[in-house]
Each structure stands twice: as structure tokens, then as C-alpha cells.
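User: Hi! Is it possible to get a structure for several chains at once, not just one? Here's what I have:
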Amino acid sequence: MKTKVVLKLGDDISTDAIYPGRFMATVLPSETPQYAFIDYKEFNSKLISKQIAPNSVIVANNNFGCGSSREQAASTLKGWELIIIAKNFARIFLQNSCNLGLRTIICPDIEANENDELEITEKEVKNITSGKKFAIEPLPKARQAIIDAGGLIAYTRKKLMEKAAAV
Amino acid sequence: MGKTIVEKILAKATGQTSVKVGDVVEPLVDVAMSHENGALVINQFLEVYKGTELEPKVWDPSKIAIIFDHRVPAESAKTATNQKKIREFVSAQGITKFHDIRGDQGGICHQILPENGYIRPGYIVVGTDSHTTSHGALGAFSFGIGATEMASVWTLGTVLNVEVPGTIKVIVTGELPKFVSPKDIILNLIGKLSAQGANFKVIEFHGNTIRKMSTSGRLVLCNMAVEAGATSGIVPPDEETVRYLREEAGVKDKLDMIVPDADAIYEQVVEIDASKLTPQIACPHTVDNVKAIDKVSGVKVNQIVIGSCTNGRIDDIEIAASILKGKKVAEGTRMLIFPASWKIYKEAMTRGYLMDLINAGAMIMNPGCGCCLGVHQGALGDKEVSLSTTNRNFKGRQGNPNSDVYLCSPAVAAASAITGEITDPRIGVN
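Assistant: Yes, the chains can be modeled jointly so their relative placement is included. Here is the combined structure:
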């Protein structure tokens, strides 16, 4: 898939940065996207005015999504169908993302700037602009299993039906 | 081969003789806690049942805990409506561990759970709150999950796809100097490990300082383990755990004292000499930006916050009251006290601490989380500085991205309230 970097971030981007606590009374995945990165005013207004295409990429360094367990941080980005490429992710955020189907890519050596063109394959991220290639680290197998099952709602529903059938 | 405490707890919770790091397991849950975000859990829970023709019924209403604490009393119609929706669900499902907005039962979830005897050694505890790590203080494997994951727990009674985590052993020895507290130990550790140093791992606390520490202090350590990225912090249960559960939490039944093997395998060992520690400050805007207090003394402070799930217990309020008794909060500085529960509030009132703090100029707020995460009470103005005993200082955390939050112990917060600037209680208090 060919795509583009729309936001470049550093280390330790917290869930307070992605989805500030003051909007946490809004919970439904259908209502959270409007507050994505709302304190990054320019980026948020680009999202709201639909200047950012689905499958656009946010690139970050280490520990993306650290802090709160608030699932809004994943649902708000999922709502815009963004892809997050980071050197690594904080545990709860990564789990929430896999549960909800937000695409997260662990790419420990990623180098990319805003507006760089990327090509993402199963194994690597190619930065078309710089010509460099970066290996993708597979997601933890327990998370991949949930993605393969179609997300945690579908996976839980399947388990529930198996349980109900066994009674 | 020896096992860590979490390997042993997960083996028990999955009915296996043993598990090892990296295994994917599905442990049975003993306590599943949510707060106001229960509104989202309910939404996702009903989503699971959609199209199944089964009646949505939680797996065990006696194991679900719901505590209103993040926005109490409701700050907006939206929150009040979420709380109403949760109340109706609690009633319809027969959920028993429900703590409403009431002075005779309410408080912050991470205080309510231990205080009411809901946590036991060896339990699997999950919560839709990252500071669920707190309950490792009583020897439980306790960790934060998202709302959809909680909906899955409510449905099945297990956590799906848990990878058995590796463990970092932290050994704390020596006596804490005067005005140096468990908060300074954990801030120091987070500074050493970094904000992601324990990501996907558990921190097991050992050493004679921990053995002598009260459960209140252990809750501080485990509470903030997540700020180093840890899945959980945990203190192997001992005599103090039994004392707390029997005397303070009213637990009468038999306890399963699961402890790690002496030859357990750890991924890393970190040693801290408590006797050499000084008061520590986490500076803006990351919790691992930790400095010894002498590096930041003198920074002007507009708001002092003592409280939260981290440092809102009776010993925290006691030290603040002892420092502020007969003194005054500096002009131009406001001071907010958030006891962690109404039980603590009442105890602090009975002991006269609240009167001492009010007379000094502090405001006593109702127990709740709102200020810590910037959703309710105590928002900061542009370019203002907060010095807070809470657990996070991310940009915007206390409600304003154009403000600074410093984190510290209750003794530092109280000493700084008098001067209006960051002050070392070892020097500033006589």
C-alpha cells in the first residue's frame, strides 16, 4: 500500500495528547473522532475538514499511547482510519488498537518526516521519499490472534456462542 | 526452575501446574473494576451480544466492581446521563460491588477496592483504568485494560490472550530519611527505568524497606508502576498484607499467600538504597523527567494538589496537616486536598487534620479523580504551575496544555504550600 505521512511525533505521546481527559465523557466510537489530537490544532482541523485521506500515517518514536487506558485514544484514530507507525507502543494502547482494529505498525528503526511518501508491505516500510527501507516487527502473537479473529468484539462473540452451544 | 509471583498467580488462575514468560493464557478473573467509563463498557458488552439472540447477562455480578470517581458529583449533563445509564445497568444485572456518589461508601476506585476487602493475594484483578496496577500492593496480579476488553471479561469471566509477562525485580533497602517517602522511591525508580522501561513487564518489589512499609506506601509504589510502562507492580504478600486485610479491610476468610520462589528468573534487577534518597520531583511533561529537589527548588507554584489514588490516604493527609498546622498557604497559591475516599475523609476530620488544613488556607475537596486528569475541579490557567502528589504530568494533564505540572510527595507539597515555591521539607520545615 502506498500512503503518506501526515503527522510526525516524538517519544512518549500520551493518551492525554491523543485524546485529552476533558473529553472523556464522550465515549461512543461514533462520537470520539472529532477530538483526535485536538490540542494539535492544525492537525485536528485538517482531520475535521477532511483534508486527510483514510490510511494516512502518523509516525512516532518510542512509547506511543502511554498513560491512561482510555479506549477513546484508539477509537478516535480508528474513526479516521489512520495508520500509526511507531518504534514501539505502550501496552494498553496497543491492546486497545488491536481490539478495535486500529492499524498499528511496530517499526523500531523508522525514519520519516511529514509529507514523505511511504510504501507499506507485510514485512517492511519503504520510505519512497528517502529511498530507505525499515523492517516491521511482528505484533505480539496474542494481539495478532485478536486481529485475525476480526477484533475483540467478534472474537468474544465467537467464544460466547461456543460456550452457549456447550451448555 | 523458580517462578515469579505473577507466573504462579497465572498458573493458578488458568488451572495449570506452571506457566512461563511468553505463554498465552486465559486467566479467570476475580475482580473486574470500572468507573464512569463503564458507560462505554456497557455499550461494547451489548455489541458482543448483538445478533446472538442471547440475553446479555454478565458472567458474575458479584465480581464486577463499579465506582463513580472520575467526575463526582457530575460536572456536566453528559456525565450525569452516563452515570444514570450505569446505575440502571448495575441494578438490572445485580452488580453488588457498586459505590455510588455517597459519603457513606464512595471514593476513588483504587482506594475503595482495597479498603472494602475486595482484593486478596493471588487474585486476578482487571480494571478499565491504567492505575489498576495499584492492587498489586496486596499481592494480586492487577492490571489495566480497555473498555472493549472489559466487555469481553464481563461476557466470559476471563481475560483473553494474556501473554505471561517477564518481571523486573526491584530491591529497596535501608531506612527512608525524614520527609522522604514511598513516592520518592517510585519517582526515583521511574527516572531510572524511563517511561517505557518496564513496558509489557511486571515490577516485583522486594527488600527490607518494602517489608517494613505500610500497605498505604505499597499502594503508592504499585500505583505508579504503570508510569514506567509496567503491566503491574506487585508486592509479595506478608504479615503486613494480612494485618491490613484483617484489621483495616475486614477480611475474614482464608488467604492464599502466593509468593515468588527464591530462585525465580528475573529479566532485570534494580537496587535502590532508600537511606540515600532525597525528595524527588517529576518535572514537565513526562513522569520519567525526575530530578532531585535541589535542582528545581524555588520554582513558583500557583496550585498545590494533595490527594488522588496515589497520595490521598490518611498518612498523606497527616503529614500535610502536621507541616501546615499553625502556618498559612502562601498568598497567590491555592491548595486543594482530595482524600482518596470518604472513609479517609471522615478519619482525617475526626483526627482534626482537615481543620488544621482549612485554617492554613487549604480547600478540602470531595474524594475524586477529576483534578488529576483535568476533567473536573482545579483546572490551571495559561502558564500556571501545579505541584501535585498525583501520578501524571503529561502536557495538558490538569486541564490546560499551556500549563506545567510537577509531581512530588505530600511532604514536599505541604512545605511548598507555605512558601509558594517548590521547597525541600528537610530545609523548609522546622
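Chain B touches chain A through 57 residues (CB under 8 Å). Chain B has a mean pLDDT of 97.

User: Great, thank you!
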